[in-house]
Amino acid sequence: MNEQAPDAAPNAEQIEYWNGPVGLRWLAYNDWLDERTAAYGRAAFAAAAPQPGEAVLDIGCGAGATSFELARAVGAGGSVTGVDISAPLLGRARERAAAHGLNVEFREADASRPSFAPHSFDLLFSRFGVMFFDDPAAAFAELRKTLRPGGRLAFACWQEPQLNDWYELPLAAIADLVERTPVDTRQPGPFAFSDPDHIREVLADAGFAGVELKPFATPFYLGRGATREAMADDAMEQVFRVGPIARLLESQSEQINAKAREAIRAALFKLAGDDGLEVGGAIWVVTARKE
């Protein structure tokens, strides 16, 4: 297996972020996160339509859940390469690949500056892994070079924050306690591709053709459990460990944190139902091709 360390210069902030405490927190809650985002990944997977024998690059593969699904689709005659900048998540991916006997190669590298040979892949795929490029047009232009003629791009990215209650609800609950910084949808982050016009502009500048965006919305299960209290507790784990609230409150006093927890839990408890604690989640499923 050809593994390489990420370049320390480009995307340095993102590399440090995903290899530090955040990467370890995501690793601890990886199964939880995979379950909650699986439906969005399936929507992108259906649009990508990987075929037996194809070579696929999984961008921002994390701990490998999507890479394994792609590997099953392309079969023994195909190949899947998963790339990510997070060493902790890739470590889990490699462990899982060995346990399941799947032929997937994982590389620790910055996908925005790919080192793959031209015309290496039939399909570029990503579930929430392309929104963190420091220069998205340049990144996609480089990734396009790795596609064979007629190759395809398919990815899932979040729509605007207002359509994603998993993000908005906790912030709204503490609006009177903490001043929030407006989301800059043109900077690296979960909502960097929430603007459909921006997506089209970036991909056109990168040389892609046939760009299509389809909205997809389905409930995001923040919490599960036998009781409403258990559901709220489960949701609180995610909100304070891997959600935006964790970063917003880390510099606040213990008193503010305590009040914030109380306010958020009350808001979450109201949403607990028979099937779980669900909130709104909406993505764009984006496809394009290389002519």
From TrEMBL:
Sequence ranges assigned to domain Methyltransferase in this UniProt record: 56-151
Pfam families, per the entry: Methyltransf_25
Membrane-spanning ranges: none
Biological process, per Gene Ontology: methylation
Recorded superkingdom: Bacteria
Keyword Transferase: yes
Keywords: Methyltransferase, Transferase
Example GO molecular function: methyltransferase activity
Name of the protein described by the UniProt record: Methyltransferase family protein
